[in-house]
Amino acid sequence: MEQCNDPSSLSKADRKTIEKNRRNQMKGLYSELNSLVPHQQHSREVLSLPDQLEEAANYIKKLQIDLERMRQRKESLTVGENSSSITSSSGRKETLPLLPHLEIHHVDSSLDVVLITRIDYQFIFNDIIRMLHEENLEVINASYTLIGDTIFHSIHSKVGECATGYRAARISDRLKKFVGSGAS
């Protein structure tokens, strides 16, 4: 009974409880952090706490680099110049395609066109739609997104059941020549 009344023994018990709660809280936070980091599937060994923290730190650094690369790419696509470049994480300049930029994908009976232009080249979109109609392609869906002064166009069209790879290649060449001449 004397121990309970002794102020020094109460503070020791309180300190132990506080420290135990702190350790439990830290353990929970480490566990939560570890659950947010993607782990390699083939590794089933349990990592030590310092290794888990190092893995989390490396993952966060990788995410920061990826985010900066995406920011630079976005900025380079929305600047007012026709050509642009970004600086990679290694400090190297990477050149992006000149605008307008055209990508064409032919799969089975569909032809997908992705066109990236500046606002001052928006006429190209209308001309591409016209060309696809001239080639007897059925435009299934056409959409665009405006970011700054850059327009991202997407056109999904149906080539037809009897279309050959040669015909799709011919149409692709025609579109690429048109966009190439429109950029100059």
Automatic annotation (TrEMBL):
It holds the Pfam family HLH. It is found in: Nucleus. Keywords: Coiled coil, Nucleus, Transcription, Transcription regulation. Residues 1-11 have a biased composition (Polar residues). GO terms for biological process: regulation of transcription by RNA polymerase II. GO terms for molecular function: DNA-binding transcription factor activity, RNA polymerase II-specific; protein dimerization activity; RNA polymerase II transcription regulatory region sequence-specific DNA binding. The keyword Ribonucleoprotein does not apply. Residues 10-63 form the BHLH domain. This is Transcription factor bHLH162-like.
